[in-house]
């Protein structure tokens, strides 16, 4: 439960308006720090919900598929260039961001990850790697501004951020493939 | 796989579809810029009452162009990137407008959002780069920053100053009709397409008047 408390604390910290404002003022920090931190907050809070509503997770997220699907859909939604702009200009979208990332991504991610099989994990990893490369190239190469609230240079920075993330995942996958798993299981 | 899980998958998919539908105005706008243009064309805002000061130091409001269409662009003279392309493309449209219409049925107006630096003298120099005559294609600034801001806001022009005295901004051709209402927002990269559309509007109007 200690974890859940840390998660809640992190969530509340991110909610403080000056903190939120600071993180959102730089595009790459908005997307690659604030958003993942919100997911992590939810991830940490997950045990609380799992203990509180064991039946809910057992029944409705039996094999982890609905949960991981929800995670993918909500995460994809936040990758649309427009949603990031809307989060800055439309209050309800901003509120949805603070709700959806911890509770519709973080919590189900933790619940699902243990339940889903290796194949699904592979699909998720490879899918997101391709997506991150794609988004990275999109943000770097597209000559027009995709987000109205940020400078073009920030957009290019974000693009490289995506590519870096994708490379990191590839390194991880590489390591995963060539690791001797029997030593750890 | 139990019954609940299947139901949950259905609910999640439905939720996702709704979310994407709402977030993109029915799959029409994936960037805020498209959403902005779609909104503007639906809203049709009227041009607010501002005072221009043009490259010949004349002062007037939008009423100066009453009874004429006005093609408005937003620029700043020290711009080294997008505005040049925008104004080059404006020049291409100007070339495609029949001489009969020019100045009588339609006027071109480039509005500077950098009034501190873009004095009439600077604008006068700037207009010569694009062969603008200063009459049928005018360049003007709006000195009152508050009024300028309200115009930019109304037309969804986003201008973000950076650390080097430049601005990041969006661009488009804004077509104002004879009553001062915004009727079209056209892609500034497709000047031929925009010119065709404008000439068509002017032609229909001219035929109607016969």
Structure description:
The complex is a heterodimer of chains A (185) and B (210). Chain A is mostly helical and 185 residues long. Helices cover 82% and strands 0% of the residues of chain A. The two termini of chain A are 26 Å apart. Chain B has 210 residues and is of the alpha+beta class. Chain B has two domains: 3-30, no CATH class; 40-209, Glutaredoxin (3-Layer(aba) Sandwich). In chain B, 41% of the residues lie in helices and 19% in strands. Chain B contains six helices and nine strands, in the order H-H-E-E-E-H-E-H-E-H-E-E-E-E-H. In chain B, the strands form two sheets. Chain B has a seven-stranded mixed β-sheet with strand order 2-1-5-4-3-8-9. In chain B, helix 3 runs parallel beside helix 6. The mean pLDDT of chain B is 88. The chains are: A mainly alpha (185), B alpha+beta (210). At the A-B interface, helix 5 and helix 6 of A face helix 1 and helix 2 of B. Chain B: Pfam families: SCO1-SenC. Chain B: Keywords: Copper, Disulfide bond, Metal-binding. Chain B: GO terms for molecular function: metal ion binding.
